[in-house]
Specification:
single chain; Helix Hairpins; two-stranded antiparallel ribbon; 4 strands; 2 helices; alpha+beta; two-stranded antiparallel sheet; 62% helix
């Protein structure tokens, strides 16, 4: 069970340590959200690419990507099924409609994951801000105390 600590009871070095920990957690959560958004965008783009697969484009010549910067010429022979990378090197043949549904489910799943992480990120930001404010107060108190002892 997590223990609650009042930040007003922490010393300046303890607050600095807590701020550092919160910085790391904020960075991790922000990075996680960014990575999920990148994957989500790829699924959206893949779903949009399926619009090319229709009878009017059958037999047309096109460029097929081998890598992000290398393409080979190809001909669109079958517009009814495609191969989808489902992860870890596995590919599954699906109809265009099944592929659209697959990509839609993936986008919805990633959206839910982002929505789960977002409140935690906001909470960590708020905690970090509170720690920074408390550090400022403690520094002012130390500065005032030193100024008061030097006048005496």
């Amino acid at each position: 069970m997590a223990q609650t600590v009042n930040i007003t009871d922490l010393s300046l070095p303890q607050l600095e340590g807590l701020k550092s920990q919160l910085d790391q957690e904020v960075e991790f959560l922000s990075s996680s959200i960014a990575q999920l958004k990148v994957v989500q965008t790829k699924y959206v783009e893949a779903k949009e690419c399926l619009t090319v697969l229709n009878k009017s484009n059958e037999g047309k010549h096109l460029l097929v990507p081998l890598t992000s910067s290398m393409y080979v010429p190809g001909t669109l022979n079958d517009v009814s099924t495609i191969m989808i990378d489902v992860g870890t090197g596995y590919y599954v043949e699906k109809t265009v409609e099944d592929a659209k549904a697959f990509f839609k489910r993936k986008v919805e799943f990633l959206t839910k994951q982002i929505e789960k992480i977002q409140p935690a990120l906001q909470e960590k930001h708020a905690m970090k801000q509170a720690v920074i404010e408390m550090m400022s107060i403690k520094i002012q108190q130390l500065t005032s105390a030193k100024a008061g002892t030097s006048k005496a």
